[in-house]
Amino acid sequence: MSAERATPVLRVEGVVKRFGEHPVLRGIDLEVEAHEVVVLIGASGSGKSTLLKTINLLEQIDDGRIFLGDEDITDPRVNADRVRARIGVVFQHYNLFPHMNVLDNVTLAARQVFGIPRPEAERVGLGLLERIGLVEKAKEFPDRLSGGQQQRVAIARALATDPELLLLDEITSALDPQLVGEVLDLVRELKAGGSTIVMATHEMSFARRVADRVVYLKDGRIIESGPPEQIFESPQREETREFLARLREPFA
Question: Domain with 224 in it: what CATH number?
């Protein structure tokens, strides 16, 4: 008798989102297993960021359901703040609080949302800063850090509450090219550590190296989904082939 399949960390069923009369998501179905890294690709306006915002309940959906584990988090009776406390999110812009030092930024949610005593929160926070190579910056304010350092702090902040799911939305798009690598190296380390990640990115070479599964979106629909080798080397759909052909970034 075969073992029962584990409940996915995330399950998106038939999700529709409109802004006014304009449909942005047109029936999205997606499952993400524990420790899986799913990378969303597609042109600007394809729905990647909106999908991530619906998963984190920053945008209300017009149809469909989203499950985090066994819980339907799109049920209107659900406490959205409690759901968001289970999900770590990092956006394009670091969104660090400029009046707080790095350690306070990293530990804020643990202290304020989860009620963890400051000494314990700071012990965990310093461990995360050590992990990302910035423990010596713990008492610095964000404006004293480079963009890459600020984005790494934002990732550490998202990890400080040990989230079930990590959402990364174009986290390198606001960085100078020379800083992109250090942030992507950290994501690679998170994958190696078993984090469950859904990531939207324009970095195709990185998607190829780090993803367990690549999902191509166009006009609010999932056109094709599969292992990176399939998507990048032998895509099944003509739309996917056309999108990749327009990209000039080498995959090697």
Answer: 3.40.50.300
Say whether both 136 and 172 belong to one domain: no
d(CA 248, CA 246): 6
The answer to whether residues 26 and 136 belong to one domain is no
**Domain housing 116:** 97-163
Domain boundary among 130, 145, 163: 163
- Cβ atoms of 85 and 113 within 8 Å: the answer is yes
Q: Are residues 82 and 168 both part of a single domain?
A: yes
HEC sequence for 98-132:
CCCCHHHHHHHHHHHCCCCCHHHHHHHHHHHHHHC
pLDDT tens track for 69-92: 999 999 999 999 899 989 999 988
Q: Is 31 exposed, middle or buried (0-12, 13-18, 19+ CB in 10 A)?
A: middle
Q: Please give the pLDDT value at position 179.
A: 77
Which pLDDT does position 95 carry in this prediction? 82
* Selection from 141, 149, 60 nearest residue 101 by Cα: 141
Secondary structure E strands in the chain: 10-19, 22-32, 37-41, 63-68, 71-72, 87-90, 165-169, 197-200, 213-218, 221-226
What is the C-alpha to C-alpha distance for residues 223 and 176, in angstroms, rounded to an integer? 31
Residues of the chain under the 50 pLDDT cut: 1-2, 249, 251-252
User: What pLDDT is stored for residue 29 in this prediction?
Assistant: 98
Sign of CA dihedral 9, 14, 20, 22: positive
Question: Which residue type sits at 79?
Answer: N
What does the angle CA 213 – CA 215 – CA 216 come to, to the nearest 5 degrees?
Answer: 145
Q: Are strands 87-90 and 165-169 parallel, antiparallel or unpaired?
A: parallel
Q: How far, in Å, are 111, 128, 132, 135 from residue 103 at the CA level?
A: 12, 10, 13, 9
